[in-house]
Amino acid sequence: MQQFLQQLVNGVVLGATYGLIALGYTMVYGIIQLINFAHGEIFMVGAFAGLAMYSYVLPESMQGNPFIVLPLVILAAVIVSVTVALLVERYGYRPLRRAPRLAPLITAIGVSIFLQELVRLFYPGARSQVSFPRIIEGPNLELGGVTIARTSLFLLVVALALMVALQTFIRTSRTGKAMRATSQDADTARLMGINTDRIIVLTFALGAALAAVAGVMQGMRFVSIDFRIGFLGGVKAFTAAVLGGIGNITGAMLGGFVLGIVEAMTTQYLLGSAYKDVAAFVVLIAVLVFRPQGLLGERVAVRA
Amino acid sequence: MIVSRVATSTSERLQATFTRPVRLAVGGAGSLLVVAGCLLPWATFFFGFPGKVTLAGFPGGSRLYPLLLVAVAPLLLVAVEGRRRAGLAAAWGVFGITAFNIAAIGFGRDLPLGLLEERGGGGLGAVAIGAWLALAGGALLIAAFASLPSSDEERPFRPGLPAALELLTIALSLGLILFAVVIALEVDETSRFISLIAFATAAGMTLARLNVFAYVTELFDRHRTVTLAAAAIAAVVFPFTQGGNAYWIRVFASIGVFAAAAIGLNVVVGLAGLLDLGYIAFFGVGAYVGALFAGAARTTVHVKLPFLVVVVMGAVIAAIFGVIIGAPTLRLRGDYLAIVTLGFGEIFRILAFNFDWLTRGPNGISGVPDLAIGSYNFGATNEVLGFSLPGFANYYFVELILLAAIILAFTRLNDSRIGRAWIAIREDETAAAAMGINTYRLKMLAFGIGAFMAGAAGTVNAHVTTQVSPDSYGFLESILLLAAVVLGGMGTIGGALLGSAALFIVPEKLRSFQDKRLLLFGIALIVIIRFRPEGIVANRRRKAELHDADPSTGDASGAPPGAPVVGAVAQ
């Protein structure tokens, strides 16, 4: 039982990361029906940008103080990730907006490979794993026999806060309304005076910022990152988005948590760690077979 | 973007000031300068830099390319109007190649990213007069062609040759393609290879803009049997010309396997429009079946079956996997398929890693024996009509038969009711369904056939490489295959063949880029989709569709990145 609870907690924490990345997939998909394959790499780039801030910009005297370090590291990650995402949108995807569906997907793959290689070749030491600072030090917390690292707790809190903030933003703000309008019908939205290009850019930026935060968190939790984390992270987050119902914001978070828990549980009880990545794909295929609209999706997937 | 805008306005000003005599004078002077420059040395002193750049009077190395390009320039200038874009392509080619070589001679070693290996350096002082002359000549040519009026009417290229000459043209074109491939294979140094690629691009664009390609393609279409027969004969004769040397035969056999798989993928992606990102897994399934049942030294299945049975078995098993993957996902929109196939590809790799009892995990199955049909061993050297054929030639022929079978299947499918249905689905699935096409069943069929072809190619590949291990079937390999299809041209045979050859040869040649090759590959994918989404060999229908909304931009620096963007936004 204790083990079960422990795995549950692990799964939830893992799921929070997936959820944060999944939001980017789901928002972009909701607005321009594009699977932004390169989103996983945005997450990876964010992690490396945060690390660069920590190792190369911050003076050593400050490195011990999480109240200074953490905001700065996250800020650097967000700035770099958002910049990269916007460049990709502007020069990669936007010219192809009217092209056949395959075209942007292939561009996305190209961007993905390009970003991975860029980091691998030009970030010092990134050819293999790079160690990441824990930043939040201190002993693990114990609660009824369940251990949770301080970093994980922090991650959970931040992720939930961001998700609530995003949800509120989209539900209540004027811009959020414009985003919803664009996702429902971009042409009509434009007729109503919404600058859809700006909305699309904003969507990419928001997704990238969330992914950057997730990247830093992932680094702090596993104390190491490498240029490949974007691929698996991206595919799993996408699975989470599909699981929750792609295009649905709440769904993406829910999907993230469910996927995290499923992965933790199957690793513990069913398949063992050699197959831990298989679980996500099996879930993905199962969802597509039995409930293609996802857990919260209302529309049945469009056939086109 | 800014650069091309300036260029456009400059060319407008040029058009206003350059009258015909001025233009001819400038163009003529440019041509002469290029010729003179190419005959003079390009480097003052160099031991290291390849291509005899210090010799006078003999256009060695990269100096040959501008010379060849400039040969068409006077012709185009005098034949005037309507040839602006073609001339600009050639002129920019001259300028670009020269500029690149100047950079390579002057700063080779210090170029950013360490792009050029070992040689070059010593600054601009090391660049000799010839290179500067050629550069200036190139610039003059650009100005001369830019000053032509930009009313670029499409003038078809129709020489109206007698039938016999048309056949000769076909033979010559095929010969030229082969020759180009052989030359590309022979060039060793990176800087020369890059010059060659630049030359091929410029020459290709010039010819394409003169509509020569359209004419040749039309000839190929009109004399299809002849073309096919000529290509087949060339392919069969090739090993006999190698004098018992296996190297090129081996290279072409490897390209053959790759191409066979690429054509299979082309059914899925090019015809039916389904993006499959885990296609290599089917190839891998075939390869494992091929290795396990061929009596490999390290097999775990101690059953040895005849090769022909194994090929069919590998193909069928791969197709079964295809149906298992396809059944749930093909009901949904295409994007899901991309992710699921990607996931399946990963699962395949993970399973191959972990199913030790069957696949021997990371070690893979090694020691796959030579093929044997009956008592005939494929590893043996043969004497045919006095020619010595290395053992590898046998695989080459097997490859050829496989390739021929797959090409035949592809064309027959493409021309059939099924092929038309696939294309309809690719273009608009909803409309296709409304026309009474059972989209789900046909997509399954495409997926299954693609997997079948990959499986067959995989079983043969197990014998060619003699070893099968999970690492050869990862995501990147899938992407390489996809790139071969996209780059070459979706939905065409020629495209898949050309794409496979290019993707096989170019990385081999860019060895000095070492681990930057993948980076370049990523960039290439992005750029090609952006500027030539229909690929090198364009399917006519697809090209029309892709360039529908794209106003043709008369600038040789490629379509200016700004223009279509603005167009897309404005729509």
From TrEMBL, chain A:
Q: Name one GO cellular component term.
A: plasma membrane
Topological type in the membrane: Multi-pass membrane protein
GO MF term (any one) = L-isoleucine transmembrane transporter activity
Q: Which GO terms describe its biological process?
A: D-alanine transmembrane transport; L-alanine transport; L-isoleucine import across plasma membrane
Query: Chief location of this protein?
Result: membrane
Q: Pfam families attached here? A: BPD_transp_2
Source taxon at top rank? Bacteria
What are the TM regions of this chain, as residue ranges?
Answer: 12-32, 39-56, 68-88, 100-123, 143-170, 199-217, 237-262, 269-290
Which key words tag this protein in UniProt? Amino-acid transport, Cell inner membrane, Cell membrane, Membrane, Transmembrane, Transmembrane helix, Transport
User: Where does it localize?
Assistant: Cell membrane
Which family does the entry's similarity section mention?
Belongs to the binding-protein-dependent transport system permease family. LivHM subfamily.
Q: What is this protein called?
A: High-affinity branched-chain amino acid transport system permease protein LivH
